[in-house]
Amino acid sequence: MEQISYYIKTRRDFTRIRRYAWILTLFIAIGGLWEPRLGLVVIAIMAGLTITAFFKGRYWCGNFCPHGSLYDVVLQPLSMNQRIPSFLKSKPMIVGFFVFFMFNFGRRMLEAFQTWGTTSFLERLGSVFVFTYLVVMIAGGLMAVFINPRVWCQFCPMGTIQKIAYSLGRKAGVNESTDQLITMTQPSMCHRCGKCARVCPFQLEPYVNMNDHNQFDDFNCIRCATCVENCPAGILSLKTKEEADSLKAQPIPEGYQHRRLIYARIQRIHQLTKDLREYVLTFVDPPTVPYRAGQFMLIRVTDEPKAYRAYSIASYDEQYRQVSLIIKQIPEGYGTAIIFNQYQEGDLVELEGPMGEVLVPDRGTEKMVFVANGIGITPFLALVQEVLTKREEVQSVLLINGQRYKEDLLYHETLRTLEKEYPHFQYLPVLSRDSMEGIPKGHATTLLKDRVFTGYKAYLCGTGHMIQDAYQIMTTNGLDEKAFFFETEEKIPDLQLPASMV
Ligand SMILES: Cc1cc2nc3c(=O)[nH]c(=O)nc-3n(C[C@H](O)[C@H](O)[C@H](O)COP(=O)(O)OP(=O)(O)OC[C@H]3O[C@@H](n4cnc5c(N)ncnc54)[C@H](O)[C@@H]3O)c2cc1C
Ligand code: SF4
Ligand code: SF4
User: Fold this and answer.
1) pLDDT tens per residue across span 33-55
2) Where are the alpha helices (H) located in 21-156, listed in sequence order?
3) Fold entry, domain 260-355
4) Which stretch of DSSP H or E encloses residue 279?
5) Does ligand 2 lie within 6 Å of residue 311's CB atom?
6) Closest ligand 2 atom, residue 233 Cα
7) Dihedral pair phi/psi, residue 77, rounded to 5°
8) 367-487 topology per CATH
9) Residue ranges for the chain with pLDDT beneath 50
10) At what angle do helices 121-146 and 91-113 cross, to 10 degrees?
11) 233 CB less than 6 Å from ligand 2?
């Protein structure tokens, strides 16, 4: 089996400082070769990182450090992004390097102070810092490219100083209201997908190491919020201990209360297209699992640490004995490679669920429109079946399905048959890169433009772009913004909605 990288390269420049602070590194390390007094800026940097550490741990490393910005922004795209060797994170390495660094740094400082009172003193002092900055830039930069962007930071003496200052701040009790830790707002909603660990620059594992306050209390966490930005469940944030405790008191949300461990057998695997497979699973323990169309299940992909992938329920079984998951194989996808290559018919697999509420229409909803693109069609295959057969109050159901190629129109004939059987159901496929008789060309949003959505509830699943555009079109065409519900794995920064992502 081809080796697929566990760690994911992803954006870490969430603020202007983080995006551009690397320029300061070049300015000091290279400009300092001509003007050594530029190195004196480093004194302010060292003071800044030590002071912030008292109150916020290694916050500086994740938010202000110019070298960190260089590694994350400039060098991450070039990095081999490998696992950081554990000896580089070990105590002997950290302590040994700290002593070695401080000895050499102290020696150079003493030499510089021998020129105290002369005109060259500031130059000599500045050059000590310029040299240090240059060495860190070169050594850290090489490790960033050939191993991982944040290798240097594992044993960086400035990081060690911050950990000492943080520890003192904690002992003195000065940081209770300022120290923000990664907090899981609702553990019952965690997909246990491990994405927070896969994007973490320090390769930490927040989701498996939460304490009693649902917080990740690790001295190495640099509060960079990369895990927060990437969590598909949107349940991570930086919070103080007091804030975390108030969140902990909140009840388990609707749609997650019946989540449980389930053993199921793979009854059948249908190859639907070259990269799409349907897995029909029969529940074994317990033998029945009540779920609602619109919910999703987790399927275990690895044991150490236990990690799952989320898949929408794509079938509707009134007896609750079976469930279908339609899974698209992702190029370089870690979990789908395991599912596609290792899971066979007859295998017993571990599920968790059912989960989710965003795509479960409220009882009493009379008019609903489902909009999907790509693999986002899967929950609607179950939803259409359920609302047509079980919801007598429903007067109008519209399914808009945007795909690229005709073979991606899953269960096309079944949906056409349902359309004939139920006059209040309209199925509207659209293809962006293929032609098929009777099917318009374009995107899901193309079909939204000339319709009126007054009185409808809209449920969407697919790419962030589609959801963003659909929101604009549908609310302009009469949809109440509170009647817009969506599920997507992508962040949609410009969309301000009352409904939340899963
Ligand atoms: C509620 C919910 C329902 C879902 N329902 C379905 C469904 O019904 N069907 C379905 O197929 N999927 C569904 N998904 C998506 C599914 O959970 C997985 O995310 C998907 O199968 C990919 O898993 P993976 O481990 O193979 O990919 P991953 O390895 O997690 O990769 C995910 C993305 O990151 C990129 N990536 C991976 N490694 C790197 C790297 N080193 N550098 C840069 N980028 C990288 C990949 O190209 C890919 O785009 C759903 C997700 C959610 C949250
Ligand atoms: S949902 Fe995934 S990324 Fe979010 S906390 Fe849970 S394991 Fe981490
Ligand atoms: S746990 Fe989150 S905030 Fe902490 S270093 Fe990792 S990604 Fe950054």
Assistant:
1) 999 999 999 999 999 999 999 99
2) 22-29, 41-56, 59-63, 66-69, 91-113, 121-146, 152-155
3) Elongation Factor Tu (Ef-tu); domain 3 (2.40.30)
4) strand 276-285
5) no
6) 1
7) -60, -25
8) Rossmann fold (3.40.50)
9) 498-502
10) 160
11) yes
In angstroms, the CA 495 to CA 390 distance is 33
What was the pLDDT predicted at 5? 85
Q: How far is the CA of 227 from the centre of ligand 1 (A)?
A: 15
Q: Which ligand is nearest to the CA of 188?
A: 2
Task: Render pLDDT for 115-163 as a digit per residue (tens, 0 to 9).
Answer: 999 999 999 999 999 999 999 999 999 999 999 999 999 999 999 999 9
What's the confidence (pLDDT) of residue 336? 96
Domain ranges in the chain are 16-172, 181-248, 260-355, 367-487
CA–CA gap between residue 338 and residue 324 (Å, rounded) = 18
**CATH numeric code, 181-248:** 3.30.70
Q: Token digits for 99?
A: 């002593």
Helices 121-146, 22-29: crossing angle, 10 deg rounding: 130
Q: End-to-end CA distance of the chain, in Å?
A: 32
Ligand 3 close to Cβ of residue 226 (< 6 A): yes
pLDDT at site 305: 86
Q: How far is the CA of 333 from the centre of ligand 1 (A)?
A: 6
- Measure Cα distances from 482 to 117, 126, 211, 471 in Å: 70, 59, 36, 11
For the entire predicted model, the pTM comes to 0.92
Ligand nearest, relative to CA of residue 205: 3
Nearest ligand 3 atom to the CA of 236 is 2
DSSP code of 395?
A: -
Strand-strand pairing, 396-403 and 367-373: parallel
